[in-house]
Design goal:
Blueprint: H1 4-23, H2 26-31, H3 44-49, H4 72-76, E1 90-95, H5 96-112, E2 117-122, H6 124-132, E3 138-141, E4 154-163, E5 165-168, E6 176-177, H7 179-187, E7 210-213, E8 239-240, H8 244-253, E9 257-261, H9 263-268, E10 276-277, E11 279-280, H10 288-292, E12 299-307, H11 315-328, H12 333-336, E13 338-340, H13 341-346, E14 350-352, E15 355-358
Parallel strand pairs: 1-2, 1-3, 6-11, 7-8, 7-9
Antiparallel strand pairs: 3-12, 4-12, 4-13, 5-9, 5-10, 14-15
Helix pairs in contact: 5-11
Length: 368
């Protein structure tokens, strides 16, 4: 049973709560406009290890000299296909991003060489798992390998890189952001589009910014780490999605939204809604020359893997990866923002063997 004193404390509490709501600073009020907010981003491993000594931009690549140690029993284990792909001449799995781009090339190779090639679509994590279990001949990643991906006997071959586009709702007049502005948006330092201007000088709409992110492959370098080096650097009010269709659907549906994806995936998922790619630092995501020169600073790295050694090597895999590198050179570079291996080397990007391992530096010829 409540006493009059209890009721007075209850009423005082309501009054204090109401006063706090009125006096909240503007940023806190604007945060309420962001839907799907999370308390944290990334995995515990990501949050604990990815601070990179205060760097804003994360590592683009991992150290190729580091290899995941495996027991002798695993090293001696041959490739053994799962039951559903037995009888194939070659079995492989690729991340959904690289799968969409490279599948037609693989199908042409299989037809021309009368081979039965089983290609499964998955994620980088699924690819890593199947390689670790030695059930596939080849894997395809949309990002550079982490140390855990560098298994004994596994070789990485880079196909090229592709721009990671940032896009807004088509009704948003904003058409260009600087890298700094983009980082501020995802860090929660910019809250309304009216704080920004289009290239014509026209201010953005008076809408709260809804930043949408897909923080995939948290252990790998590159990809979204080129925006912020760790998941914990993203604002807790960022709307985090788990799939590419959800990313595009959210930006298409919300007039104040911004998100990212490669242009091939935007094309594939156009049924989810229309989005408008914007320029970053004055360069469009389809400008392959700007990407090659790193003037457009956000991209993904397409890598394939093959095995070398007794019991694991498949000659069809080696022939296929060589064919795919050549065919990637023929893709329209400015259609989706592709940069092939030959153009990367010419621009000074660093390679070790067939793997891209570093961004260009002034005066470096790119080949290691």
């Amino acid at each position: 049973m409540k006493t009059p004193t209890d009721r007075r404390f209850f009423l005082w509490g309501l009054m204090v709560f109401a006063i706090m709501a009125i006096l909240l600073p503007a940023p806190a009020l604007m945060a309420a406009d962001h839907h799907g907010a999370h308390d944290h981003h990334g995995t515990p491993e990501d949050q604990g290890t990815a601070d990179n000594h205060g760097k804003v931009r994360g590592d683009a690549f991992s150290d190729p000299s580091q290899e995941m140690p495996m027991p002798d029993e695993w090293i001696k284990k041959p490739i053994e296909y799962d039951n559903e792909v037995k009888g194939a001449d070659l079995s492989m799995m690729m991340d959904q991003d690289i799968y969409y781009t490279l599948l037609p090339i693989i199908q042409t190779f299989a037809q021309d060489n009368h081979l039965k090639i089983i290609v499964q679509e998955g994620s980088c994590g699924m690819v890593a798992g199947m390689l670790a279990s030695k059930t596939i001949d080849m894997g395809g990643y949309c990002c550079p390998p982490s140390k855990d991906d560098r298994l004994p006997g596994l070789q990485f071959y880079t196909m090229g890189i592709v721009s990671k586009a940032f896009f807004v709702n088509p009704d948003n007049p904003i058409d260009n952001l600087t890298s700094a502005q983009l980082r501020d948006i995802y860090a929660g330092k910019l809250f309304r589009w009216s704080e920004l201007k289009a290239q014509t000088g026209k201010p953005g709409p008076g809408l709260a910014i809804k930043a949408v992110a897909r923080l995939h492959c948290p252990k790998n370098p590159g990809h979204w780490r080129l925006l912020h080096n760790s998941g914990k650097k993203f604002s807790p009010y960022v709307s985090e999605v788990g799939s590419i269709p959800d990313m595009i659907a959210q930006v298409a549906a919300a007039k104040g939204a911004i998100g990212w994806e490669v242009m091939t995936m935007v094309e594939k998922n156009k049924n989810m809604g229309k989005v408008k790619p914007i320029k970053i630092d004055g360069y469009a995501p389809t400008d392959s020359k700007a990407l090659a020169a790193l003037k457009y600073p956000f991209y993904r790295t397409y890598n394939l893997t093959i095995w070398t050694g007794k019991g694991v090597e498949n000659k069809n895999a080696r022939n296929l990866v060589s064919y795919m590198i050549k065919e990637f050179e023929k893709l329209n570079p400015d259609g989706f923002g592709f940069v092939s291996v030959s153009r990367l080397k010419k621009a000074g990007w660093k390679f070790k063997g067939n793997e891209l391992i570093g961004e260009p530096t002034p005066g470096h010829n790119g080949q290691m």
